[in-house]
Write a structure and sequence with these properties.
The complex is a heterodimer. Chain A is mainly beta. Chain A has strands at residues 4-5, 10-14, 19-21, 24-25, 32-39, 46-52, 60-61, 64-69, 74-79, 88-96, 105-107, 111-116. In chain B, strands 2, 4, 5, 6, 9, 10 and 11 form a 7-stranded mixed β-sheet that branches. In chain B, strands 1-3-8-7 form a 4-stranded antiparallel β-sheet, with no helix packed on it. Chain B is globular and about 40 Å long. Chain B starts with a strand and ends with a strand. The chains are: A mainly beta, B mainly beta.
Chain lengths: 117, 114
Amino acid sequence: AQKITQTQPGMFVQEKEAVTLDCTYDTSDQSYGLFWYKQPSSGEMIFLIYQGSYDEQNATEGRYSLNFQKARKSANLVISASQLGDSAMYFCAMREGGGTSYGKLTFGQGTILTVHP
Amino acid sequence: EAQVTQNPRYLITVTGKKLTVTCSQNMNHEYMSWYRQDPGLGLRQIYYSMNVEVTDKGDVPEGYKVSRKEKRNFPLILESPSPNQTSLYFCASSLRTQVSYEQYFGPGTRLTVT
């Protein structure tokens, strides 16, 4: 079974509007961390935001927020006031705390976001 | 500046010709890892290292070797590359393996095997 699922291969949004990128995860660990990375066309991986499984508040970083619904095992990324520079591939990833994961990041398939002017 | 560096950034090679992709970090991180990125599959872990002389297989280790003789360096070796190893490769490091520690990624190495 997929540990991280991103069901939206591509998303479009108008500049200045908000957009939500979906991510669901599957783990039996109590301790885990969820990450979102941005990959622009240049290829580098840019860390955006982190949410720990024990964090009670949703994480926020500037225009990025993470809508964490633990019972539903979802960790959606919300980008407010989209900008043209937000056009990129976005990856959701999980780091599990169990002994067999050894710090590995498990990634979803990615969502390509296109921001229209 | 804290960073992870990889070399080369781009490489075109032929089947069977041994190659090494270097990775170095200047943050004194214990944990280092190699990932490959393929369309529709996201990033998958190839090998990881918990510390010097401690390495182990990730999800897709076949056809790859690694070594960790110094804390800062974690080279990826393809002894006999094949076309199915054409991919975008990332090296990453983090201070610890615990869930809250962010992994810092190198700029990526785009490898083409013909």
